[in-house]
Amino acid sequence: MSLLDFQSLSVRINQHSILSDIQFHIEPGEIFGLVGESGSGKSMTALAAMGLLPSGSSARGQILLNGQDLLALPEPQMRLQRGKSLGMIFQEPMTALNPVQTIGAQVAETLLVHGVSSKREALERAGDRLQRVGLPGDKAGLGRFPHELSGGQRQRVCIAMAIALRPKILIADEPTTALDVSTQAQILDLLKELAEDEGMALMLITHDLAVVAQMAVRVAVMHQGAIVEQGTVEQVFCEQRHAYTRRLFAASTHKPARVATAQSQAILTVEGLSHAYAKQLPHPLGPRAMLRAVDNVSFALRQGESLGLVGESGCGKSTLSRLVLGLERRQSGRLCLQDKVLEARQPMDRASRRGLQVVFQDPAGSFNPRHKVERIVAEPFHLLDQRPQDWRQQVKRALEAVGLNADDRFKYPHEFSGGQRQRIAIARALIIRPKVIVLDEAVSALDVSIRATILDLLADLQRDYGLAYLFISHDLSVVEAITDRVMVMRAGQIVEEGQTQAVMQNPQHPYTQALLQAVPRIPENLRPRPEAQT
Amino acid sequence: MLAFLTARLLTMIASLLVASLVIFVMLDLVPGDPASLMLGLNATPEALAALREQLGLDGPWPQRYLAWVTGLVQGDFGLSYTYRVPVSGLIAERLAISLPLALYALALTVLIAFPVGMIAAATRRSWSDVGIMGLTQLGIAMPNFWFAIQLQVLFALVLRWLPAGSFPGWQAGIVPGLTALTLPAIALALPQASILARVMRSSVLETLHQDYMRSARAKGLSAAGALVKHGLRNALIPVLTIIGLQFAFLLAGAIIIENVFYLSGLGNLIFKAISARDLIVVRSCVMVLVFAVIAVNTLVDLAYGLVDPRLRRR
Amino acid sequence: MRRSNAFRFPTRALAAGLLLAGTALAGAQAQTAATIGMQLEPPHLDPTGGAAAAIDEVVYANVFEGLTRYRSDGSIAPALAENWDISDDGRSYTFHLHAGVTFHDGSALNAEDVKFSLDRARAEDSTNAQKALFAGIESVEVIDDTTVKVNLKSADGAFVTKMAWGDAVILAPETVEQAATAPVGSGPFKFDQWVRGDRVELVRNPDYWGNPVDLERATFKFISDPNAAFAAVMAGDIDAFPGYPAPETLAAFEADPRFDVVVGSTEGETILSTNNKADALSDVRVREAIAHAINRQEIIDGAMFGFGTPIGTHFAPHNPDYLDLTAQSNYDPERSKELLKAAGYDNGLKLTLKLPPPSYARRGGEIVAAQLRAVGIETEISNLEWAQWLEQVFRGKDFDLTIVSHTEPMDINIYARPGYYFQYDNPAFQDLMKTLDVEADPAKRSALLKQAQQMIADDYVNGYLFQLARTGVVNAKLKGLWQNSPTQANDLTGVHWE
Amino acid sequence: MAAARRNALPLSLMLGLALTGLFVLLALVSFFWTPYDVTKLDVAHRMQLPSALHWLGTDNIGRDILAMIMVGTRTSIAVALVAVTVGVGLGLPLGLLAASRHGSLLDEVVMRSNDLIFAFPSLVIAILITAVFGPSAFNAILAIGIFNIPVFARLSRGAALSLWQLDYLRFAQTAGKGAMRISIEHILPNILNVLIVQMTIQFSLGILAESGLSYIGLGVQPPTPSLGRMLADNRTLTALAPHLTLIPGMAIVLIVLGLNLLGDGLRDLTDPKLARQR
Hints:
By secondary structure, chain A is α/β, with parallel strands linked by helices. Chain A has helices spanning 42-50, 75-81, 103-113, 119-132, 139-142, 151-163, 181-198, 209-215, 233-239, 243-252, 317-324, 350-354, 373-378, 391-401, 418-430, 448-465, 476-482, 500-505, 510-518, and strands at residues 4-13, 16-26, 31-35, 57-65, 68-69, 86-89, 169-173, 201-206, 218-223, 226-232, 266-278, 290-302, 306-310, 332-337, 340-342, 356-359, 436-440, 468-473, 485-490, 493-499. Chain A starts with a strand and ends in a 16-residue tail after the last helix. In chain C, helix 9 runs antiparallel to helix 11 (359-374).
């Protein structure tokens, strides 16, 4: 008998079908991967197993845990299963913990809720569990509050909470998506180790094929609320029987065809750029502590070149992008845009701005929700002394250039999907034909298939308009796909710079090495067999 | 923590200084001569001049301001123009009524609002929630003096369960004292409780959608258990802010209620002092109230630290 | 109580409800103490250092005594002075004091104290609010311990009356400083404590020289809000509220056997004071027009709920010398319009009407405004606090019309002061008052007073509305309070429980 | 989505709209017609119960209560409306300015002044203001309006600050737009819903504040009726002629209730957080 058996599970929320006919099973001690893009229904599947579907939803079918149908259990009994037989961790460790309770108490609570131990004993066992996930489990360790921990540490606490009672199965819903690559590697290692040591099954939900390849034995691919393909990792990865699986794989390893357009002439030069923030003061008369977010950074971006900037969160790359864009006043260092030199503290004039546009990450926050696309795309015309006569024509052309319909200009941003919005953002950046576009995590929030098309678009535009890109991302594989040169940033400094291929294949700096080491990759033996590609 | 306390104290002193200057300048503008008010319609100019001098109403304002502030610091609030007794004594006498009244009303507010707000949140979108919220809307919508008069007519004049007003003094005993303050406290508390119950409800509802509540459910807690164990304490943070504001309001805002129930509290003192142009009393009373607000805000800030460990570190 | 009933007969139903509920509790009173309600709290308790009526209402005849005193009917009686002689030229008064009178601190009250008190009141730096009362005094001589002689600059027929004012009470030099906060007098009650903003408590003076009083303890409770006053009396917190501020509720007390409603007269001529120097109002025709526009009875009914006597001049109707001149300024809006037309204001006139806090002024003001509007005079009402009223109206003379009750007794002489706030400047009247001041013959005085009343009525100096009634509510078992108030006082000497 | 919302128009919103609409209508009608002249006294027929002649009875000097309610509603609404306008008119620009210069000295000054105003007891200050300048509708508005300024300054600053974090404002900056232009073009339309909700709340508080000021005689001056003054003028008759205070009291309760419900409803309608909840 399987440990957890989904039998034709269907879920509807307010008459909308969310999941249809989900059928798979997980064996004891097995690591099972559930892969899909956002909205594919993989989280709902997990919540259905936990009995935590949102209100207004109705589930049909069966979810058997050791032969017992969880869907048929009344809430009081289902409650006893949660935490005891089924543990679950979520994507966002920053908010998953109660900020006003010590982590010890929160881990111990799992034990107390199920009445397995006294308060003192529970804390003791919570300490053990914390140690098990690699955190100090002594009194001081137990007494820490969530805000004192980093994201990775918090995810460890969540894991300790979920495995406190040694459940038979741990459901991990995108457990590392919110984490940096190096932290991700550690958490994944921990999960794998726990599963092996404790004989616990792991249902790993992720969008990342490479993570599944590294972790799982069997895998199911979800698309639009249904499982399109399942089997051992080898089967699924190598055979790719379903068209969607093939699309997904192609997209996640996609590299746009690029034509080298880089010229020798530098168009944007940054010299000795530094920026420090005041830390929160202990009290108004205290000494002013400064945080050097950007520390003496210099680089040059050549015309038609694509320059990558990678680094983990907090390394200073966002500050650097804001400084380059003139959104924040430069405290020291100069900026040369084309021929114009901007000294420290000198505000960026409109003429300089004309040569420099930007595409941001967040497809939701990138547009004023109350403006129509036409007005949004036309906003950079403000940089010209006068809006051109044919500005409507130009907006239409820009929209068409990024693969949208000219009539889309009369719609509001919320009527578009994430990928389409990123196209609008690109159209907006293009409209006054800048020389440089800063792409600040421009594809990070997108699903892989959409990301691939946007990368293609960016490559095409670069070729057609001779644009220079400053491509800022935390994702090394994306940077590898689209840039000519790359800079690696850490703690405000550029630690390594070079041709992208060279850096990726032969990193010099230990940090770059560690970073590359941590990136999960699909092993060669799991690449599709030639005959599968039709 | 010590640094944090010093910092708070310094900010507080600075605010008080600015506030004192504002109060002084504002009151210096008030037209109306206390001397002529005291001597009435038939007073001669000489008599007026003599009294003005007696009262120390002459002299340039910076000098009078300095004298006042230095007095304040030393606990000397000056002499009331009209009563000719120390202002500090007057204020202390009135605080003996106003402070217990404010605390009584605040206690009622909290005692009503907490359970009511929790019940409404726990049963959201049910009839009990709609009913409770409707009642709180009514509580907020009523002019409080009107409500107070209705209470007075019903409970004191018709039913005769409670005194219609007046305060016998604490020397008469705790029970008669509290009995006398009951109607005013209810009149003050119900609208405030309505506000607080609504804040409580929305604050609890807000926490219901936090990720950590889902984590708690995943551990095996019931929805109610998660609400009590994890939601409540987090929900308290905005509630505390409101409670702080309400205390300040109850202390100063009882003027009208004191009028209805003929209590001689601080509000009554200020009101009469304004009519009598007893500016030294007005000034010091306003200062005391501002001090109370700022002090309560500081206390609330410190209380955040108790509730929320994230704020403790500073 | 069913709601429909309550709505249909609210007054009767509620009064009955109040009554039923109340009877159970009545009679539980301690019968040696009384609580008297007052609307205004005195700023201090020194009657020689302030004009506030509330001071006298607490201390007059209770704590402090003068040489003479007012009786309830307005006549003058001996007080500390057993009797007095008047010299033939009427310029010197010899007062014979009671023997054995002591202050509350035990010290004796003698002629030195009288001299001190009178000299202090008329001194240059005196802060006595009625300094004019003492202006006629040339010197005060101590003859012996119980005899004091007052020499006047000129004969003054009203001098004995002046000595009955609260501003002329006798204090001891040793305790004069504390008179404001802890008065030491010679009356039947001793000051006990003053909870500021709330009440003043007096206790019986066991060593009183005169007839001992019945009450052991008297409390003056200060309740300014009319509604609170209603509740306090209704709830039995107050035994008597002589200057009861909510006449509209008196019907409820009249219907209730627990209470007696007492309606008496006061010295308060309530007038529509008119700025005689203001642009339009300097024209006597305009003033006459205003006088004819006023319907006194409507004001009395509307503002005072029927309590009050119409007056046609600045004089108290209960005074034997009163001249009823109401017919001269009868309600005649047509005449009023004609006069306005004659004065050139047929296209309308805009005036300010500044009202002090009492309800006679506020409510009366609204009615006056409506009546004036009916003849084409628009008024812009502003409600003022006393402080603002004194500042703007009384001292600043920045007003056209105001309503105020002049509560000082026999104060027609204010019309002789050209600088007084209504700015009536008539030399003939001023001469008349000078004659009156030196006239001691009662018959001639009476004639002069009548002449004065006629003169100001002819000049329509102010709009004369009504004599303020003193409406009080008293516990039916409490007897002996003054019905009228010839001077502002709550004389408790004769008060007793039945 | 939009259609679904329209279907689920909150009950509170409809009730609030109905109540507010009713009273606004009453106030508007009073410009053209009232059953009697509000300044017309009829002392002989005072304190009458509701009848065919006087639908809501007459007050203590014989004025028609319905007419007074109509004109009084107009006055109370006008006072509260102007006070809110004062608050928004000064508070909003200050808040937007402070947000656009977040962390600057100006921001600090604006916020500190806000705190200072909040620290003052509002009723006491209102009494003082009227003591300084004399009681009048204008000064009542001033006294209420002053305390609206920090409310709106704080609200708009907070809302604007969270918007300043958004990418489209950054983009507008890269498009060379200044802080003022961005505030007007991008921020204002997007914080309007929060502002409107707060305006309804402050509006209802303004009506309550007007009644409180009138109670102590400092509100609108006679002969202009206001709901608060009707309550205050007749308060001694609460036990004897309850309809005199009950009617204006209920009018205030219903207006304030209507406005609060309206505010709640609007918030439910526009707040995405609450929308998610349902």
